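User: Now give one protein:

AI:
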Amino acid sequence: MALDQPLEIVIAGESQFQQRLAQALPADSFACRTTAGTAEMIDLLAERPARVVLLQFDAPEADPLQILERLQQEQEDLAVIMLAQDPPTEAVVRCLKRGVRDFLKFPEDLSRLPELIHKISHSSGPEEVPAATDAGPLGRDGMLGACPQLQQIRKRIQRLSRVKWVTVLILGETGTGKEVVARAIHNASTVLSHEGNFIEVNCTALPANLLEAELFGYERGAFTDAKTRKQGLFELAEGGTLFLDEIGDLSLLLQAKLLKAIEEKRFRRLGGTVDLQVNTRIIAGTNADLRRAVAAGQFRQDLFYRLNVVNLELPPLRERGADILLLARHFLRQFRQSYEIAVNGFSPEAEDYLLGYPWPGNVRELKHAVERAVLLGEGGEITLADLRSALGLAPPMQPVSPQAFLPTTDPLAIPTDGLSLKEGERRLIEEILRLTKWNRTKAAEILGISRPRLKRKMEEYRLGNPHEEAEF
């Protein structure tokens, strides 16, 4: 990166912190001034303004929020980036809400600084939405966030990157980003062929007979419409990764064929007589409890053990704290650019609402809500009213809590002795159907699942519109 003149940077923190950051910023591009105290930092800015301050969040005997307030009073257009080794999630939330441009891990994210500061220097002024760079909380692995659960997943992915062909099972609610994690595993691999493809297939998207043909391919004449030979996804993923999403919905017949392909690394096309060798990493994803499915005879135990060599469990969005704001701001920036709409950020009330909403559809629901709010909002920032409108579920004047999705006739709807996961799911689906006036399309969108999957859930829990029984 080369600028016409070195960019003025102030680094505030302990001496080792100052040295590491100064070393990470090329001297021909950045003019770094260092300070250990707040008063000295204010004097430096008064003497010569800076564009960016790099602030050590966990410096001894320092209150980062008080320092931030002093800095903002001194210079309104100042961009503040905070760094810390292991900041509490609540603290990250407070800092982001108070206008901190970004929050990085020290020293892991130092390589990110030059590009991030470069983007800040070319912005027209203070910007409420953090730039989405390719590392750190908005990571080059495609996984956006910095919560402890995600950091652990990143560490496990790095270990998996050195292991060849191991099968991985990714667990998590719908919309938590299983495909993103599967792709991150593929991209991080140092042992698979660089020519290998990443191929995804949703096991609920096709009927069983079509899915079998899609996975294993077929020979000419294998069935009526088989006019030519077709390669299956196993072949196309040779040397790479095949991601089987919603593996829990696979038929028992296909489960048997999949097990054989994984164990023996060979399969036959439909209508074929020759076994084909294949070397493909299999990653499976599901939001179902496969152990329970095994006990119910709906999923093969041997296939479960084969897939569950390594498992990664993704946290629901409601448990990710500050990541909600990081993700929301990232999506806002993304849609602001793609739609060319001047929306600069979220109001404080909107941010509180984002943090308090339970996000049953997880990251997918958040992304869609931000997109709708950007498109339909009328001001320069997204307000609480915009979010309510985008979600279509908010009560009149208060953020939604998880209990808002449970029946409201009894304020103590959750029994004192607890509530099973299945009963909670049934109540959630029933309440969202009621709130959407039994509009299946809208309810499925809010829940982050397909209409066929919603239909199956309604049949499982025997849910039907009390006023009419419309066809799906």
The chain has four domains: 1-138, 148-313, 337-399, 401-461.
